[in-house]
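forwarding from the other thread:

> can someone predict this with pyridoxal-5'-phosphate?

sure thing
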Amino acid sequence: MATSSSAYFPHLILPKGQIKDGLYCVLRDAILEGRLSGGTKLPSSRALAEMMSISRNSVLAALDRLLDEGYLLTKPSSGTYVAAVIPDQLIHIQQDLNQPAYIPTQTLNINPHIASLLPHWQKSSLSSSQERKIFHVGVGCVDLFPHQLWGKLLSRAWRQSYYQLGQFHDPRGYLPLRQAICKYVRSTRGLNFTEDQILIVNGTQQAIHLAAYALLQPQEQVCLDEPGYDSALNIFRSFGIHVHAINSDDEGMKISEIIENYPESKLIYTAPSHQFPLGGTLSLARRLALLEWAAQQQKWIFEDDYNSEFRYGTHPIQALQGLDQQQRVIYSGTFSKMMFPEFRLGFMVVPEALIDVFSLAKYHTDVRSSYLEQVALALFIQEGHYARHVRKVRKACYERQLVLIEAIAQHLPDVLTVQPTDSGIHVVCWLNDSWTEQNFIAQCAKVDLAVQPLSRYCQIKSQKTAVLFGYAAHTPDEIRTNIAKLAWLIKG
Ligand SMILES: Cc1ncc(COP(=O)(O)O)c(C=O)c1O
């Protein structure tokens, strides 16, 4: 039943500022705090203005706003009332400060592979935000990225995209970006495809995910280099796929092992231009053998070309995709190494017959990659900034690699032997027999070095122990100082 509120108003003190806003705020607070309860009838606007000695227009403006927002309602020929259900009750969920019920992991009934990874994930620093550590594997020359220019391109992209942001676009991504990438990688990587075959994705990890989602079913088989990319292994396994470890030698992945031992495999994942993590390349003879077998047996090859632009001594090697006459290769490239790790755009080139399959998979996964960054990246490539940045990064990275190798030779010659390389953004260092990976990593952690053990990337336990140093993100001085610091610690 409605109660009179007249007594309430003469005591109202309005805050400074516009009277209509002040009256709106105090009335809204009074309603929210229950001082004016649901169903209370308000005095007429004229009466209110008189009671509070303010203009009637101010009262009308405040009441109109409260009516619009649902705090008040009018009843024809009766007056204005406080609403029984106020809008904030509809939008604010009551906070329950009790502890949430505990559900043991075993009873969560989640994907068994994810469950097996959880204990490690919860312990690792990856699951929480990390402070910057030295020698992180997989980070490019972040310090050389033209941040200011990128900011300008992003704001240009924003101005240009005003109308496009409200529309739906092709799941394959922003066409001018696909065209720019097409032109760039055809000349730098020798790829052979049309812009229809290119798909913008959120990095290589999404590309692998899409391939597993689109092409594979639980219990099917995949081959992966050994040691190999742990994220690829985990993505495949989380789809219930059996992953065979394929050894490498001086000529790269042993393709004959796949053909002889695992002929049922449906997809071969490989990084033929820069094997991860050892850094070798797949010989031409093996590339051709793999392509021929895949064509004859109708297998898919997933080519991870994540590090193709980080080659120092020699010309870039032509991508496997460029040699493929039978459309068996699904190619994946990333920008996260050349730009910065948080830049989550990459691209895939898929066989013509799979264009719709992958478009659909991408659509189901996240509809499309973020539009604005695609526009900015298109400008970055079209205007030649990307090619210039690649040249600068290559030069700096090569220098950084040499400095690291030299520093290790100077300070830790009895502990580490560097695996020769002229590409990539990390080096693999073999440990001498008196060190286990665990002991070495423990020493590194004491001086804040994020060095990784080789075993992290192995499916099969190996007798040989090694660690990986990512060097691209550090200046020569930083590299020298940190290796000297580690040596000082190790030598006690
Ligand atoms: C073998 C391999 N492929 C691809 C990537 C890049 O993945 P993304 O493009 O998702 O950043 C990495 C990252 O370290 C990698 O090691």
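The pocket of pyridoxal-5'-phosphate is lined by residues 138, 203-205, 229, 271, 276, 304, 306, 334, 336, 346 (CB under 6 Å). thats all i got for now
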